[in-house]
């Protein structure tokens, strides 16, 4: 599905017209936007106090209102994200928003636990941490804000967001949508908030503010490292370089379709996307043939590989940011190759030392590395994953092979025989999360992540069996 610039512009105007306050420079608080970090913090503290005084049923109503508001504005918000950041694809942003609105766990995730025995009763409850400071990325501004808001509020918290400056318009717009949904459901003003114009300086203020109890960073290694050094409880979702390993027992046609879908969704900007394929030589030609037969793939020849590599990798062996998240048509056009709109991914045979094997490229250009056998494939896949412990994918019908790779790679998400996005609940079982906390160990975050445990013990009473 392709959407014209005119249609996208119309969708953006529609969502702006539906907001009570459309000018983000007018930070009046009633819309969740404030002139300073400190103003947002004070509003958040007051809102948190009001929230924990409300019933859980009211909290559930607030979460339901957020879900509905996001779904009602889905297409407009998706269009705005693509138009502002120039990353990803409109149709995939639509899917992203639906996923986050419907498969992010709510209040049910903090159900208390009880244990009775000879010595009485123990009740374990998940209490809020208070006010959370959340730093969100340019890559998925809508999905991250939706997912974080539902999770953090379900747990009883307030949250102040500091969006990536290059996605501030989208981020502050969706924040206003969420904030209005909260107020409409009887929730407090300021439960979600942001400064009107988030910058790196305001991010620093959020990190250092003494009244913020927890920090959550979704982004690259630098920002995660900063919050981990803050001295506060921190949840960090860092980078990944997910390998897709294909052994000789795989169902090759299904593997090919899954890899193409997973590597190309949102032009590769999901941190879970397949970033390189490692395939046993015996089935490599068949895999490539089946990928081409999807009709969505362009196979680069060696001369074209050299041109594309020089385009997207700088002399310092870093990814050229100008091509992150761009359509494959844009990338190929700039090296003199024109492909149809049906094309979603460029692939190529790569040596083990090719830079796109080792760099998290976040674009629809996929290297394929051949290995002699499964054992060599596992060893190399673990190397290129580089200890991120983020995501890995395997295509195989050999249970022992899948087990061996899962044990060796030790990633937070391990997808077997499907596209990478199945691991975040899109076409796969389980809840979704757009803050995948590999570095700090929480995994796919949910409401329970943003709580502290409280235990209540009643001695020698209330065992009734």
Descriptive keywords:
19% strand; 6-stranded parallel β-sheet; 18 strands; alpha/beta; 16 helices; single chain; 465 residues
Largest sheet: 7 strands, parallel
Provide the gyration radius in Å.
23 Å
Structural class by helix and strand composition: alpha/beta
Tell me what portion of residues adopts beta-strand conformation: 15-25%
Poorly predicted segments: 20-25
Helix content: 40-55%
Distance between the termini: 60 Å
Your description of this structure?
The structure is a single chain. The protein has 465 residues and is α/β, with parallel strands linked by helices. Helices cover 41% and strands 19% of the residues. The chain contains 16 helices and 18 strands. The protein has helices at 5-18, 37-52, 56-72, 74-85, 90-103, 141-154, 168-184, 200-208, 221-228, 252-264, 281-292, 302-312, 328-333, 355-358, 374-385, 399-409; strands at residues 33-34, 113-117, 120-128, 131-136, 158-163, 192-195, 214-218, 233-237, 243-246, 276-280, 297-299, 345-349, 365-371, 391-395, 413-416, 436-437, 443-444, 451-459. The protein has a seven-stranded parallel sheet with strand order 11-12-13-10-9-14-15, with helices on both faces. The protein has a six-stranded parallel sheet with strand order 1-6-5-4-7-8, sandwiched between helices. A three-stranded antiparallel sheet has the order 2-3-18, with no helix packed on it. Helix 6 (141-154) links the parallel strand 4 (131-136) and strand 5. Helix 4 (74-85) runs antiparallel to helix 7 and helix 5 runs parallel beside helix 6 (141-154). The longest helix is centred in the first third of the chain and has 17 residues, at 56-72. The N and C termini lie far apart (60 Å). Residues 20-25 have low confidence and may be disordered.
